[in-house]
Amino acid sequence: MAKKKKMDPLEGEALILKVKELGNLSKEEKARACGYFTVTKNGVERVNMMKFLNALIDAEGIELDSKANGNGRGGRSASYRISVQSNGNLLIGSAYTKQMGLQPGDEFEITLGRKHIHLKQLDALEETAEAS
């Protein structure tokens, strides 16, 4: 077997896509192909399955630690990733608005960058202008 060149382990969406691409391989082969291995001083390759599986769990957005969100119910935690929906909309979930302490009716000014969206809360801007 040819020695593989050590690469940085894949994470996030890149890890998920690579695992899907590798289809029928064993989980050890998938872990190795995604960069989750080390080479010992003696040149022996060791697959780090625990790091691979933990990275895969994180990439899928699965929360294993029990962090109650205050109301006693479970739920999805913020992954800080969203996708454009089939209708072209971007939906920012309640996990983010709760974390920011936003309330229904809060308004924002949207500024578009090349590959980013910046939101400025209007209430904060108006209060600053009135205080001057």
List strands and helices in order, with pairings:
Layout lengths: L11 H10 L5 H7 L3 E3 L5 E3 L1 H11 L34 H6 L8 E5 L4 E5 H10 L1
Antiparallel strand pairs: 1-2, 3-4
Helix pairs in contact: 1-3
Descriptive overview:
It is a single chain. This protein is of the alpha+beta class and 132 residues long. It contains five helices and four strands. The protein has helices at residues 12-21, 27-33, 49-59, 94-99, 122-131; strands spanning 37-39, 45-47, 108-112, 117-121. Strands 1-2 form a two-stranded antiparallel sheet. A two-stranded antiparallel ribbon has the order 3-4. A hairpin with a 4-residue loop joins strand 3 and strand 4. Helix 1 packs across helix 3 (49-59). The radius of gyration is 22 Å and the shape is elongated. The protein starts with 11 loop residues before the first helix and ends with a helix. The model is unreliable at 68-72 (pLDDT under 50). Pfam families: AbrB-like (PF14250).
Q: Which regions are unreliable across 5 or more consecutive residues at pLDDT < 50?
A: 68-72
Radius of gyration based on Cα positions = 22 Å
Count of DSSP strands: 4
Strand content: 5-15%
Kindly state the percentage of residues in helix.
Answer: 25-40%
What best-fitting shape do the alpha-carbon axes yield?
A: elongated
What is the end-to-end distance?
Answer: 71 Å
Helix and strand composition category: alpha+beta
Q: Write down the overall mean pLDDT.
A: 79
* Spatial strand order of the main sheet: 1-2
**Order of helical and strand elements:** HHEEHHEEH
**How is the main sheet built?**
2 strands, antiparallel
> With helices defined by DSSP (H or I, 4 residues minimum), what is the helix count?
5
Protein name: SpoVT-AbrB domain-containing protein
Keywords: DNA-binding
Domain SpoVT-AbrB: 79-124
Organism: Allocoleopsis franciscana PCC 7113
